[in-house]
Amino acid sequence: MAEKIQIEEEAVEETKNPFVEGVRRVLLAGVGVVSMAQDEAEKFVHKLIEKGEIAEKDGRSLLNDLAENRKQRAQESGKRVSDELEKRMEGLLNRMNIPTKSDIEQLSNKVAELTKKIDTLKEQK
After folding, report:
1. Are 63 and 41 in contact (CB under 8 A)?
2. Phi, psi angles (nearest 5°) of residue 116
3. CA atoms within 13 A of residue 83's CA, in its CB half-sphere
4. What is the C-alpha separation between 64 and 15, in angstroms, rounded?
5. How far is CA 71 from CA 31, 40, 76, 80, 107, in A?
6. pLDDT block averages, 10 residues each, the chain of length 125
7. Can you tell me whether residue 124 is helix, strand or coil?
8. Which of 10, 29, 26 lies closest to 18, judged by CA?
9. So what's the pLDDT on residue 15?
10. Would you tell me how many other CB atoms lie within 10 Å of the CB of residue 59?
11. 100 contacts 90 by C-beta, under 8 angstroms
12. Structure pTM?
């Protein structure tokens, strides 16, 4: 008789950073709102075209303008989010006493400067 082997699956709980999870939710909500707004704008313009209130060419132009405006706003928002995230990460690194990229670059520049001075002094001797 064949034995039944039971395999127990362990529930692996992923630990998620609450800050990252919050940012993810906000971004997903923003994408949803933008998508809904675009759909509604397209429906509205198509209704105007069907009623003959605007020409099809003007409707396409209006939709293209809306899409371009949305794209520009998304880029600006992305930049603001990126800048804010960078500031917060720098603050976190400072609190943890971990040097930032700019700190390391400043130290590298100082080392390069001192190396040049040492080389100049060696040549003078």
Report:
1. yes
2. -60, -45
3. 6
4. 43
5. 12, 17, 9, 14, 39
6. 47 58 76 76 83 82 83 84 85 85 92 96 89
7. helix
8. 26
9. 54
10. 19
11. yes
12. 0.44
